[in-house]
Design brief:
CATH architecture: 3-Layer(aba) Sandwich
CATH topology: Rossmann fold
Number of helices: 6
Distance between the termini: 32 Å
CATH class: Alpha Beta
CATH superfamily: NAD(P)-binding Rossmann-like Domain
Shape: globular
Largest sheet: 5 strands, parallel
Radius of gyration: 16 Å
Structural class: alpha/beta
Order of helices and strands: EHEHEHEHEHH
Strand content: 5-15%
Strand order of the largest sheet: 3-2-1-4-5
Helix content: 40-55%
Length: 174
């Protein structure tokens, strides 16, 4: 199983959870993987796991809420691997996802949007020239069924994840 041989993938939020599993799976399928996360220790651990399994990985500490860090991360990936074929936007700040709508502060909502659709848009824009140049560029944006269902108590998360879904549909059509 080497469906991704020769491909280069960036996986945001790959220091833990779904992002970590995605990075490891892509590497097992033959992709060179850029492991992006805010936590240096998590980045190093995932890179080590991928390399120990015989894969190729580049660790990049990056907070996708910071535009300059996105630009720098994409530059590091291009310098190391020379291309980008796949972008997986998975990062999110789990510390501020829950609040009933009646108590939701604008600041909490803004943080969810900064780490969700705004950061995903910036990452897509930074990667776009490289994805286009590959001729087979792909973007995978993680949303959530929580927004579709309107899960009670998760207003900021639901709103941001539904915006990710709209961003993804629009970008695909464009």
């Amino acid at each position: 199983m080497a469906r991704l041989n020769g491909k280069v993938a960036i996986v945001t939020g790959s220091g833990r959870g779904i992002g970590r599993a995605t990075a490891k799976l892509f590497a097992a399928e033959g992709a060179k993987v850029a492991v992006l996360s805010r936590t240096p220790e998590n980045v190093a651990q995932v890179v080590d796991e991928i390399q120990s399994a015989g894969g190729t990985a580049l660790g990049v500490t990056c907070d996708i809420a910071e535009p300059a860090q996105i630009t720098a991360a994409v530059g590091q990936v291009i310098a190391a691997f020379g291309r980008i074929d796949i972008l997986v936007n998975n990062a999110f700040d789990p510390s501020v996802v829950s609040s009933p709508i009646i108590d939701l502060s604008i600041e909490q909502l803004q943080r969810n949007f900064e780490m969700g659709p705004v950061a995903y848009l910036r990452t897509m824009q930074a990667c776009y020239p490289h994805l286009k140049a590959s001729g087979e560029g792909r973007v995978i944006n993680f949303a959530s069924l929580a927004g579709v269902q309107g899960m009670a108590g998760y207003g900021p998360y639901n709103l941001a994840k539904e915006a990710v879904r709209a961003l993804t549909r629009t970008a695909a059509r464009e």
